[in-house]
Amino acid sequence: MQRIACLGSFIMAKSLKAYSFATIATIVSAFGLATYFLGANLDNMIDRDMKGRHVNCPGERNGRAKITDDQAREIKSAKGVMVKSLAKKYGISPTRISRIRNGKEWKHLK
Questions:
Q1: CA distance 76 to 97
Q2: What is the pTM of this model?
Q3: pLDDT in tens, 39-69
Q4: Beta-bridge partners for 60
Q5: 83 CB contacts (<8 Å, ≥6 apart)?
């Protein structure tokens, strides 16, 4: 993992092939600095998880959800109704309806 450790005005950079010292110094001065990492997206995700900052928001708690938990339950329990008609009714794709019915999405609902 590529890291920049900052202690006061001392900067220690390890394995920073893609970044110049000027770039690092700019990052440090622009953001005031606590501890910053320069690395790949995977490094960022690992750091997020280690610090407990990952929040799993299933169902309607997810800000991007187009249906509610109750609507997902209705979709799961709608037997004999065509997927296309449910998709039109709820304003989501037929694929999404199938994935809800098959338990691949909205898994937290029983």
A1: 9
A2: 0.54
A3: 788 888 888 888 777 777 888 988 889 999 9
A4: none
A5: 94, 97, 98, 101
